[in-house]
Prior knowledge:
The chain is α+β, with helices and mostly antiparallel strands and about 100 residues long. It is built from five helices and five strands; from the N terminus they run H-E-H-H-E-E-E-E-H-H.
Amino acid sequence: xxxxxxxxxxxxxxxxxxxxxxxxxxxxxxxxxxxxxxxxxxxxxxxxxxxxxxxxxxxxxxxxxxxxxxxxxxxxxxxxxxxxxxxxxxxxxxxxxxxx
Length: 100
C-alpha cells in the first residue's frame, strides 16, 4: 500500500479512543492496524471485517431512497478527517462533494 493512500483514510488514536469509550465495536470492526516501520503504525479505516479487504467507499454512507442525497450513519462519532472534509471549496468541486 502506498502511504499517501493510507493517510487519506487513517484515523488517529482520539477517534479510536472515542469509539472504544462509546462501545462502538461496529465501527472498530472496520479498522485495520497497519504497521509501517519499527514502532510506527497507522489505523486505516474501512476494511471489511468479514474479508479483511479494503472497501471502495465508506460503509456508513447511505443513499436516501429515491433521492440524490446521502447521509452519514455515524455522524455523531464520525472520524476527524470526515468532519473536516472537504478541505476547501476547490477540493469539494474537484471531488464532487456537494457539502459546500
